[in-house]
Amino acid sequence: MLLDTASLYFRAYFGVPDSVRAPDGTPVNAVRGLLDFIARLVQDHRPDELVACMDADWRPHWRVELIPSYKAHRVAQEVPAGPDEEEVPDTLAPQVPIIEAALDAFGIARVGVAGYEADDVIGTLTARATGPVDIVTGDRDLFQLVDDARQRRVLYPLKGVGTLQVTDEALLREKYGVDGPGYADLALLRGDPSDGLPGVPGIGEKTAAKLLAAYGDLAGIMAAVADPRSKLTPTQRRRLDESRPYIEVAPKVVQVAPDVPLPPFDPALPSVPAHPEVVEALARRWGLGGAVSRLTAALRPDVLA
Q1: Hey, CA dihedral for 227, 232, 233, 237, is it positive or negative?
Q2: Is the pTM of this model over 0.85?
Q3: What is the C-alpha separation between 23 and 227, in angstroms, rounded?
Q4: Would you call 304 exposed, middle or buried from its count of C-beta atoms within 10 A (0-12, 13-18, 19+)?
Q5: Beta-sheet strands, E only, within 87-182
Q6: CB count in 10 Å sphere of residue 258
């Protein structure tokens, strides 16, 4: 089980009231929400391995070089030596180090690599895995990794942490008309304002899905642009042709990296906290007793889903 950690703690932050605070008044809603989410996931799915994938660089320079608008609207402050500072709610930013400390204290593997996003870590671990993989994320970009044959699916939170959309190829075809790799092409064509991806003007999600159904993939669509006999409308042909500079570089930006140089780590799901005294200290300091107890209980191997 691979966690898109930032995606999940952002959801926890907005899903748990900020009245959840430490004894000193510091908001800890994202911390508690994430720990409870992990406890629920472990209890319901019993993964053998669990990895909290981190954004060591939320806006990698190599992606920005290809598409300068990539996540540009989310930059709080540019840092010449990188990575840029991301706009994060004032009461969330201080919770991130607490989250990291809690994961480490429990012994839950936490992996981030300089110059890469959590998505890339997830893509690499998914490519390396020899068994089933569940990817837990609130980011639809990772639908591109869905692969029924290799037992790769995405658990996508719909409401809080209790309702997860199990995203497999059947669901992707029903909702978007594409398979996993096709979703990356669809996202590229459609664009994504939340990531600063412009897309192809005039081609929304439905049109992108129809083009992919007709021509197979992005390469097939661009071949149709060059083929005067294809059934593209004149406007589609023109807009796709004018978007060639974007279409040539966008796949590298949109597709997750499958070959990130990962550090050594132990992905095994712990059965007890690795550092119980640190867990207890964090629970006291930040008023997390209930969440810590729930996660500790969920980790026990005798707790059945």
Answers
A1: negative
A2: yes
A3: 68
A4: exposed
A5: 109-111, 133-136, 152-159, 163-167
A6: 13
User: Which one, of 101, 126, 85, lies nearest residue 3 by Cα?
Assistant: 126
Cβ atoms within 10 Å of 277's Cβ, excluding its own: 9
Buried-state track 222-253, b at ≥16 Cβ within 10 A, e below 16: bebbeeeeeebeeebbebbeebeebbeebeeb
Q: Which of 179, 304, 182, 175 is nearest to 255 (CA)?
A: 182
Q: How many CA atoms lie within 13 A of 180 on its CB side?
A: 19
Q: How many CA atoms lie within 13 A of 1 on its CB side?
A: 23
User: What helix, strand, coil percent values describe the chain, rounded to 5?
Assistant: 50, 10, 40
Residue 296, Cα to own-chain centre: how many angstroms? 25
Q: pLDDT (tens digit, 9 = 90+) per residue, 227-264?
A: 999 999 999 999 999 999 999 999 999 999 999 999 99
Query: Residue 20: exposed, middle, or buried by beta-carbon count in 10 A (0-12, 13-18, 19+)?
Result: middle
Strand partners, 152: 133, 147
CA gap 133, 151 in Å, rounded: 6
110 DSSP 8-state letter: E
3 state DSSP class of 278: helix
Residue bearing tokens 């008023």: 287
Helices (H) and strands (E) in the chain, counts: 13, 8
